Amino acid sequence: MKSFDYIRATDTGHASAEAAEGAVIIAGGTNLLDLMKLEVMTPDALVDITRLDLKQIAATDDGGLRIGTLVTNADLAAHMTVRTDYPMLSQALLAGASGQLRNKATTGGNLLQRTRCYYFYDTATPCNKRAPGTGCAAMEGATRLHAILGGSDQCIATHPSDMAVAMRALDAVVEIEASTGETRHVPLSDFYLLPGDTPQIETVLRRGDLITAVILPAPAQGVQSYTKVRDRASYAFAMVSVAGRIAMDGDRIGQASIAFGGIAPQPWRDADAEAALVGQPATRETFARAADILLADAKPAKDNAFKVPLTRRTLIATLTDLCGKAAS
Amino acid sequence: MNTHTKMDAHHVMDAPDHRNRLDDMAQGILGTTMDRPDGPLKVTGTATYAHEDHPAGMLHGVLVRATVPRGTLDGTHDAAVLALPGVRRVLHGDRFLRNPAQGTANEAPVQGSREIFYVGQPVALVVAETFEQARHGAQRLVLQMTPGDAVTDPTADDIAVERDPDEQSSMGDLDKAMKDAAFSVDQTYTTPGHTSAAMEPHAAVAWWDGDKLTIRASAQMLKYNKNEIADSLGIDVRDVHMLAPYVGGGFGGKLGISPEAVAAALAARDLGAPVSVAMTRRQVSEATMRRSETVQQIRLAADADGVLTGIGHVARVSQLEDEDYAEPVTQATPFLYRGKNREIGLELVRVNATCAGSVRAPGEAVGLTALEIAMDELAVAAGIDPVELRRRNIPEVDPSDDKPFSSHTLEAALDDGAKAFGWDGRKTKTTDGDWLVGSGMSSAVRVNMIGESHARVTLNPDGTLLIETDMTDVGTGTYAILTQIAGEMLGVTPDRITTVLGDSDLPESAGSGGSWGASSAGSSVFLACERIRQEIAKTLDCDEGDLTLKDGIATAANRQVPLAQVLGDAPLTSTGVIEPGKTSEAVRQATFGAFFAEVGVHRVTGEVRVRRMHGSFAAGRILNAKTARSQCLGGMTFGIGMALTEAMIFDPRDGRLVNGDFGEYHIPVNADVPQLTVNFVHERDPWANPMQAKGIGELGICGAGACVLNAIHDACGVRVRDLPATLDRILDGLPEV
Ligand SMILES: Cc1cc2nc3c(=O)[nH]c(=O)nc-3n(C[C@H](O)[C@H](O)[C@H](O)COP(=O)(O)OP(=O)(O)OC[C@H]3O[C@@H](n4cnc5c(N)ncnc54)[C@H](O)[C@@H]3O)c2cc1C
Ligand code: SF4
């Protein structure tokens, strides 16, 4: 590990000022430290935000929930309001990592965790995300973990978070404090960037930006769930995950909000697929049509063609289940 | 030494020992669930593993890996790294180990860092004051390499195939048997590479005192390891002192020495200070041993009753050049079942990838797993219950050479297991919510052997007992069982027994590996104790057979004397030596068992969950019911891993291991392992050794994966022949959702 300076932030302004100077923010450290040991990331300085007062979960004026960035994944999953009003989020968090990691991992850190692409972690291989312009070792290599949607010819890595997938389906908004002191709100739908020609740039965050909170809108109607399909029963990243919410309008689907993990460079949502559900009867044909729309542009790599039928099946089963529950 | 008399007991296992002497003993601790004496140290973190021994002034070394699969290392830019804070030295050279020594090699493996043979080969060591500084230096060291032509795809069509004549055998006419068969199976099965995955990564701390080298190592077999170290360094073995009192798992990966041990010794000599070299998990995965992937073609021919008339088992495995070891895939095939027409063979191809070696029951773990899937396919084809099919195919003698079995317990294990599992009332082709549920079974078999082993036992005048051998406890329970054997033989309670292991200056044992440790080291302790009993009997003027020793009291005929009184003021010391003899060849020795599993296959996703699993095993005398059971639980867990999750993924372009950490190399986690149950079937095998005990460490994995895979077929009709059964291999066979 390269040696680095350690700075303990005294307040958010201090943290973002240091970050603007080039220090990398460390929260739980469960992802960053691993990357530093492997020298995938080699910061000259870390600014530790863990003593800042960003650990609250509080109701917002419009009936939503403001989750401080330092709320741990364990605490968030266990929070009563989250469990009752945003159950897919609690389920997603509990489907991720392990108990020990969830005790340490934070909300902001989870959103910003890096991909699990094998080659990203091996500094002896080309990787446009780790070392821009060197190429992509995965493209012709081992791609079980990789994207079938949203990738580019520069990078086909997936975003590994479970939490972010649920937050995407819940229309979460990220609260960001810049080093100028100004606070802005970015919907999660705009927060992540597709790899395109610059896979090293993963979000809209700018130098010096500090995530201070994630805000959930007031609980939406309907029934929700998070389903994670993986290679072992626990402690494995999603091959495919589906965060879904369905509200029925009589015997037709009234609202549908569906996000996917494990198949794209960011938590994936497809407005056309959702639109194909709304106003339709809750039948297998409807569900299959939505799946067809979602997967029409799927581009599997060598090892991950199975994600196409797997996503399709998981989506259909999830919709069947949610519509059934929402109707009753 | 202040010993009473010099009393060695040397026994060559040339004839069966039917006396079952241990059954006559009175202490009553052998075979019990006695806790490990080392347990409290381990759970409180006070048992130190290799890298935790930090002599004053210790420096840290981190190995540097080659990043091309073949070629030459023309130079390294040392100066830039030497300029980094804390860095003290960059080493490379002719004595670096290219790869680990194979188990029982007793000599150095291929050495040298100039020529590169695989991605991950350690070619340099950066030594610094802290581990982090060394790791940074290692990461920064620029290697000048000239890439050469590499072979990295073992399945390439044009790859050269080697066939060792000793590994090929043929009997009768299998082609004809297949043609004439009422039922037959002809399929190809593949298994991926496996890493040993011991919890403690390989590590060594070395220091020199003049010409004398001491190494704290993570090693399984010190008797061989010290010679491997000496040969690697070009020094006299009498100058090598190895210590491995606690080892956090080996699973074959630590049978022979690995690159870190030699690098630590070289650096310590060069720098005149103790040097520790600990491998990271990725380095363990890349630069120690892998189990080779296998491609196995299996043919079974059976008559109308399901009785086998022919067996074909030809396996292809891979290895690095200049290494002889080939995964012995077909080891148990010649003697497990009937069938006089046979083709058994082992083929080897050379690849530029991590060295292949012994990992968790080499041979049967993968070979039997494939054979037992084939047997299940035969059972389905013939419409015969799979347990019954196996019963019908148990041979009277080893069909390959007509040798008798020393003891045959497969039928007993099948019966016991079927009953314990409730095979007759099992869940088959049924559903439970979203889960398709089915059951499967498989046989277990593992060859049994002993190795020459020495142990010294000292009975002190105060009635305490000291057991000394260079044997290791790799987390298996050696401290416990040697304590129990000696305590049982000499009537001493465990609290008065000290067992010292893992020191190469102590009497040489067979070491831990190949499931022979307990039988071999245990027998040497038994023999030493038997000799001490004879001496006590002489003092008491009775026959050894009439002597009862219990709780420190000797009872002979009508006399009761405290041991302390018998001994006078000098200790009784005996060195016991067991040596394999004619019983290894005269009979076929093996352990047997049977596995049963119930699994659920998710109807939507193809995910598989084992719902319950049972194993019944016969392994001769069980020395400690708890540690023996734990061995079987571990083996069955490995079986679940082999069936469902474990696979080393190599990039076919350059042989690079891409999943060298436990995040992506999936060993089963708690949630993957349901309640496992284990039964032991009573057995005393007189041919095995004077304790009538047999190896148990590996039996629990041999064939274990097959019961899970067979249950998958029962549950959903998908026959997985390419392991592991990840969901993508099942999905296509599931009904539409
Ligand atoms: C073995 C293992 C298994 C895992 N399995 C899963 C899984 O199944 N599902 C899953 O979703 N996750 C999984 N994880 C990932 C885990 O969820 C993340 O490591 C964790 O959420 C990161 O949070 P952290 O606070 O530790 O982040 P850190 O490691 O501290 O930081 C991560 C990144 O976020 C940045 N950052 C952190 N906070 C802020 C902030 N407030 N403002 C701006 N930047 C910030 C850091 O600079 C850094 O780049 C796993 C991790 C491990 C190690
Ligand atoms: S997929 Fe992306 S992260 Fe992976 S090697 Fe290619 S560029 Fe790097």
From TrEMBL, chain A:
This is Xanthine dehydrogenase YagS FAD-binding subunit. It comes from the Bacteria. GO terms for molecular function: FAD binding; oxidoreductase activity. It comes from Loktanella fryxellensis. It holds the Pfam family FAD_binding_5. Keywords: FAD, Flavoprotein. The keyword Flavoprotein applies. Residues 1-221 form the FAD-binding PCMH-type domain. InterPro entries: CO_DH_flav_C, CO_DH_flav_C_dom_sf, Diverse_Substr_Oxidored, FAD-bd_PCMH, FAD-bd_PCMH-like_sf, FAD-bd_PCMH_sub1, FAD-bd_PCMH_sub2, Mopterin_DH_FAD-bd.
Automatic annotation (TrEMBL), chain B:
SMART domains: Ald_Xan_dh_C (SM01008). It comes from the Bacteria. InterPro entries: Ald_Oxase/Xan_DH_a/b, Ald_Oxase/Xan_DH_a/b_sf, Ald_Oxase/xanthine_DH-like, AldOxase/xan_DH_MoCoBD1, AldOxase/xan_DH_MoCoBD2, AldOxase/xan_DH_Mopterin-bd_sf. Pfam families: Ald_Xan_dh_C, MoCoBD_1, MoCoBD_2. Residues 44-149 form the Aldehyde oxidase/xanthine dehydrogenase a/b hammerhead domain. GO terms for molecular function: iron ion binding; oxidoreductase activity. Transmembrane segments: none annotated. This is Xanthine dehydrogenase, molybdenum binding subunit apoprotein. It comes from Loktanella fryxellensis.
